Amino acid sequence: MTDIEIAQSCQMRPIQEIARTAGIPEEALEPYGRYKAKIDPALVPSDHTGRLILVTAMTPTPAGEGKTTTTIGLTDGLRRIGKRAVCALREPSLGPVFGIKGGAAGGGYAQVVPMEDINLHFTGDFHAIGAANNLLAAMLDNHIQQGNELGIDVRRITWKRCVDMNDRQLRNIVDGLGGKPNGMPREDGFDITVASEVMAVLCLADSISDLKERLGRIIVGYTYDDRPVTAADLKANGAMAALLRDALRPNLVQTLEGTPAFVHGGPFANIAHGCNSVRATRLALSISDYTVTEAGFGADLGAEKFLDIKCRMTGLVPSAVVVVCTVRALKMHGGLAKTELGTENLYALKKGLPNLLRHVQNIQEVYHLPCVVAVNRFPTDTDREMDTVVTSCAELGVRAIPSTVWAEGGRGAVELADEIVRLCDQDSNGDFEYAYSLEGTISERIETLVRRVYRGNGISILPAAQKQIQRLEELGYGQLPICVAKTQYSFSDNPALLGAPEDFTVTVKQVRVSAGAGFIVVLTGDIMTMPGLPKRPAAERIDVDENGRISGLF
């Protein structure tokens, strides 16, 4: 059966029952139908703090790795061995759902449900984020139209509109055409909603008041005399927060096995900070002994930003890290085409293994965290291939454990769950360190990250980006953490450099501040904040019948 057929065959439990399982009082529950609900964290007892487990992965390939599937299956596996566990995931974006990647609710028998709702509109969080983003854009252009009291330079507007869809046509536009009543003509553009700073702000805010303060600090452009203009200057942050009031509350759903799951927030890790909301993570920790969460794409992106941004801002530290890999993906990093992955090839596997091992070494040697490798096993993987992965990881002092959660759900993660408990019981995350210090310059911070985590030779900063860095430091933003936007397909900024490349230089093309989120965004390579649809988008296969039953989602 397909993922959606498996999900639709599941007998879901009422969300009130899932809330009771999680120890969430009924007064904190705001149901959205029978199987999903918003939770008010203020009404949930918070005198307990469980262990935090971070799930990350090797560098992704078209062969797939199964990070979300592993996160869900591991949570179910922990409950199978008698542990009180919940998972905290990101919400899927409609861009990938209708594009090439598909949904992000897990797969096989390790899914969160209702799968169709989660992958489509869910509880409307992304729509609220887009509305808040675009309200700010409308108020900005209206301010200019009504006399421009702040003296905003229309050539230096940095705020873009957004839509939660892959639409390359909107990357660069000219608007305000049609004469004076229709606004000031200017160059404009759209980002995908997950790249909006409003998304980052929502995911990092811990209260309504914090949300309003962060929204108020968002910089939308600069004046003719080079002063930054903020959302607070436009008096927009209160209305934006009002639009986001309900979206700030975490969403509760369930796995196929009835395990409580929070799905909230959804910044991409290749163009944003790649983690679910702080509120959902803290809520999960308050009601469980083990909270399993994921970070987007490979450990050089999602895990790095989770550890260097989210953990730095919140004081959270994972007790253990899971690095997910597949034999198939490793063979792709070893040079095989996707059509050749079903046949044993130890040469290609060994050639691709350095990619996995570098991620593992970064977790161990840069961040000083205990980790385990989860090998998401496919039917075509041979015992000799699996043994090769296990042996290579053992040389680093790390266990590599086969995971069969797609086919078996939580039962396929029991051994992995046992290892997680063992690592957590060692209390061995006390030596945790960030990859870089906030002291020094922005350029030094970027270079440190490139050398320590990506393992490159250094950076090349284009003249325009150098000027941007200088101005941001003059404005007092020089001590913020950095959020690097780069390809997810390589440690470098070149997606063609597979495996564990060395002797490369990362080119910094643009640097800007997300003052509300509290980090510096560094754009490298050919990364774009508005993706496009592929030649054959997944949307062509999605349909709904007369009974409202959706098909084609995966």
Describe it for me?
With about 550 residues, the protein is of the alpha/beta class. Strands 1, 2, 3, 4, 5, 6, 14, 15, 16, 17, 18 and 19 form a twelve-stranded mixed beta sheet that branches. Strands 20-22-23-21 form a four-stranded mixed beta sheet. The protein is globular. The model has no long low-confidence stretch (mean pLDDT about 95).
Can you describe this structure in just a few lines?
The chain is an alpha/beta fold and 554 residues long.
Keywords:
554 residues; alpha/beta; twelve-stranded mixed beta sheet; four-stranded mixed beta sheet; 19% strand
The average pLDDT score comes to: 95
Q: Would you report the number of β strands?
A: 25
What fraction, in percent, of the residue positions are helical? Answer: 25-40%
Structural class: alpha/beta
Q: Which range does the strand content fall in?
A: 15-25%
Q: How far from one another are the termini?
A: 11 Å
Query: How would the global form be characterised?
Result: globular
**Poorly predicted ranges (pLDDT <50, ≥5 residues)?**
none
Q: Total helix count?
A: 18
What is the radius of gyration computed over CA atoms, rounded to a whole number of angstroms?
Answer: 23 Å
What profile does the largest beta sheet have?
12 strands, mixed
